[in-house]
Amino acid sequence: RVHRLDAYGIMHVKLVPYMWPNAGDQQVQRFWEWARKQDREKSLWKNDVATCEEDYQRVLALLQGCDIIHSIGENEFIAPALLSGSRSKVVDARAYSDDSCHFGKTITYQALPPGWFERLIVRCRRSATHMDFTPSSAVFYRLGLKAQVFVVRERRRELDDHNIQIVLRASSRRQLKDLDANIAVIEQFFPGMRREAERHVEEGMEDLEDPVQ
Predict the structure, then answer these.
(1) Residues 6+ away with beta carbon under 8 Å from 56
(2) What is the C-alpha end-to-end distance of the chain, expressed in Å?
(3) Is the pLDDT of residue 33 over 50?
(4) 8 Å CB contact between 11 and 76
(5) Nearest to 153 by CA among 145, 142, 162
(6) Are 162 and 67 in contact (CB under 8 A)?
(7) Tens digit of each residue's pLDDT (9 = 90 or more) over 63-118
């Protein structure tokens, strides 16, 4: 279960007491006794987050409401913020193929605040049946269609700094519209975010119709 969380960003409910102190069985209690002797954990967790199982349920409900985790079954949650940085080596390369993604859009920002991309992943996952993701990319599948999101750092030639581009690709215009709508909701969560530029990409697709869903 720990490997699954580290490699795939999927958190089992049995791991929840190890994320936030301090309600659980004797093994959990021993873990937090040890953790609070470590310098970093000691400063982070001066007070208990939970004192009973119901407290953990409230924590999970809050995280779901804030688009930080998403339930994918009775006992598991997608938790992109907990994904290991090495995850990029695990995703099947075929997920990045754009052969079926005929519609695209690029959105440019000066910067992205912490948690922006993870929240976007969670919102998009709600309408997908399956997802592959890394700390800087995500691919969503539903009804034989695919949608992709990439975070790209763009160097500006005239200045010694970078812009951040969000590259969207989708099998249908509807998917692309849904991705953009989810991004608009996330933008509202972070006041002050402004799109520097937008560009649609449908080169050679003038006569292509959306697939039947």
Answers:
(1) 16, 17, 20, 23, 50
(2) 35
(3) yes
(4) yes
(5) 162
(6) no
(7) 998 888 989 888 899 888 887 665 545 666 777 777 788 899 999 998 899 989 99
What is the reported pTM?
0.77
Which amino acid is present at 109? Y
What is the rounded distance in angstroms from the CA atom of residue 144 to the CA atom of residue 130? Answer: 11
Kindly report, residue by residue over 196-209, the tens digit of the pLDDT. Answer: 989 987 654 443 34
CA 9, 27, 50: angle at the middle one, nearest 5? Answer: 70
Is 95:40 a contact under the CB 8 Å cutoff? no
Helix, strand or coil for residue 87?
Answer: helix
Contact 105, 176 (CB under 8 A): yes
| CA–CA dist 161, 138 (Å, integer) | 25
Are 166 and 106 a contacting pair, CB within 8 Å? yes
Beta strands 103-109 and 70-71: pairing type? unpaired
For 92, the token pair is 């099947």
**CA distance linking residue 184 with residue 194, whole number of Å:** 10
Tell me how far apart the alpha carbons of residues 142 and 68 are, in angstroms, rounded to a whole number: 21
DSSP one-letter code for 207: T
Residue 206 CA, distance from chain mean position: 32
Rounded CA-CA distance 168/1 in Å is 31
Peptide bond into 75 cis (omega under 30): no
CA atoms within 13 A on the CB side of 101: 21
- The torsion angle over the Cα atoms of residues 109, 110, 116 and 120, rounded to 10 degrees, is 10
